[in-house]
Amino acid sequence: MDRRRLLASAAVLGAAALLPGIARAQSGELVVSNWGGDWNQRIAQGFEEPAFAASAMRIIHDLAPVPERKAKLLAAIV
After folding, report:
1. Measured distance CA(23)–CA(76) in Å, rounded
2. Which range, of 16-25, 31-40, 44-53, averages the lowest pLDDT?
3. How far is 20 from 17, CA to CA, in rounded Å?
4. Taking the CA atoms of the chain, what radius of gyration do you get in angstroms?
5. Band of the pLDDT at 20, cuts 50, 70, 90?
6. Quick check: 46 and 5 in contact, CB under 8 A?
7. Which class for 12: exposed (0-12), middle (13-18), buried (19 or more C-beta within 10 A)?
Protein backbone atom coordinates (compact mmCIF):
# COMPACT_ATOMS: atom_id res chain seq x y z
CA MET A 1 0.00 0.00 0.00
CA ASP A 2 1.45 3.33 -1.00
CA ARG A 3 1.37 6.46 1.11
CA ARG A 4 -1.49 8.13 -0.76
CA ARG A 5 -3.77 5.11 -0.44
CA LEU A 6 -2.94 4.84 3.26
CA LEU A 7 -3.72 8.53 3.85
CA ALA A 8 -6.97 8.34 1.87
CA SER A 9 -8.05 5.25 3.81
CA ALA A 10 -7.19 6.90 7.12
CA ALA A 11 -9.15 10.03 6.15
CA VAL A 12 -12.24 8.03 5.24
CA LEU A 13 -12.04 5.96 8.41
CA GLY A 14 -11.59 9.06 10.53
CA ALA A 15 -14.52 10.84 8.92
CA ALA A 16 -16.75 7.80 9.23
CA ALA A 17 -15.84 7.26 12.88
CA LEU A 18 -15.77 10.84 14.15
CA LEU A 19 -18.39 12.76 12.20
CA PRO A 20 -21.83 11.17 12.47
CA GLY A 21 -23.34 13.66 10.01
CA ILE A 22 -20.96 12.58 7.24
CA ALA A 23 -21.32 8.85 7.56
CA ARG A 24 -23.95 6.95 9.47
CA ALA A 25 -24.88 3.31 9.61
CA GLN A 26 -28.55 2.43 9.60
CA SER A 27 -29.91 -1.08 9.10
CA GLY A 28 -26.94 -2.40 7.16
CA GLU A 29 -26.34 0.77 5.17
CA LEU A 30 -23.47 3.23 5.37
CA VAL A 31 -24.16 6.65 3.86
CA VAL A 32 -20.97 8.47 2.85
CA SER A 33 -21.09 12.12 1.80
CA ASN A 34 -18.21 12.81 -0.55
CA TRP A 35 -17.03 14.69 -3.61
CA GLY A 36 -17.81 12.92 -6.86
CA GLY A 37 -15.62 12.16 -9.85
CA ASP A 38 -12.16 10.63 -9.64
CA TRP A 39 -11.89 11.23 -5.90
CA ASN A 40 -14.96 9.14 -5.16
CA GLN A 41 -13.95 6.39 -7.61
CA ARG A 42 -10.50 6.07 -6.05
CA ILE A 43 -11.90 5.96 -2.52
CA ALA A 44 -14.42 3.29 -3.56
CA GLN A 45 -11.82 1.15 -5.34
CA GLY A 46 -8.94 1.66 -2.93
CA PHE A 47 -10.76 1.52 0.38
CA GLU A 48 -14.43 0.61 0.30
CA GLU A 49 -14.26 -2.46 -1.92
CA PRO A 50 -11.38 -4.13 -0.03
CA ALA A 51 -12.74 -3.17 3.41
CA PHE A 52 -16.40 -4.06 2.87
CA ALA A 53 -16.24 -6.82 0.22
CA ALA A 54 -17.03 -9.57 2.71
CA SER A 55 -19.48 -7.45 4.71
CA ALA A 56 -23.25 -7.30 4.32
CA MET A 57 -23.00 -3.51 4.75
CA ARG A 58 -24.21 -1.59 1.70
CA ILE A 59 -22.46 1.72 1.00
CA ILE A 60 -24.58 4.55 -0.35
CA HIS A 61 -22.78 7.56 -1.82
CA ASP A 62 -24.27 11.00 -1.20
CA LEU A 63 -22.38 13.07 -3.77
CA ALA A 64 -22.94 16.81 -3.73
CA PRO A 65 -21.07 20.11 -3.96
CA VAL A 66 -19.57 21.59 -0.79
CA PRO A 67 -22.41 24.04 0.07
CA GLU A 68 -25.06 21.32 -0.14
CA ARG A 69 -23.04 18.87 1.97
CA LYS A 70 -22.35 21.58 4.56
CA ALA A 71 -26.08 22.41 4.77
CA LYS A 72 -26.91 18.73 5.31
CA LEU A 73 -24.28 18.44 8.04
CA LEU A 74 -25.55 21.53 9.83
CA ALA A 75 -29.15 20.35 9.59
CA ALA A 76 -28.20 16.93 10.99
CA ILE A 77 -26.31 18.41 13.94
CA VAL A 78 -29.04 20.81 15.04
Report:
1. 11
2. 16-25
3. 7
4. 13
5. low
6. yes
7. buried
| Residue type for position 35 | W
Q: Classify 61 as helix, strand or coil.
A: strand
State the Cα–Cα distance between residues 42 and 20, nearest whole angstrom.
22
The pTM is what?
0.51
Which one, of 43, 36, 41, 32, lies nearest residue 5 by Cα? 43
Output the pLDDT for position 71: 87
Are 40 and 63 a contacting pair, CB within 8 Å? yes
Name the band, by pLDDT with cuts 50, 70 and 90, for residue 1. low
* DSSP letter assigned to residue 78: -
Residue 29, SS3 per DSSP: strand
pLDDT of 25 reads 46
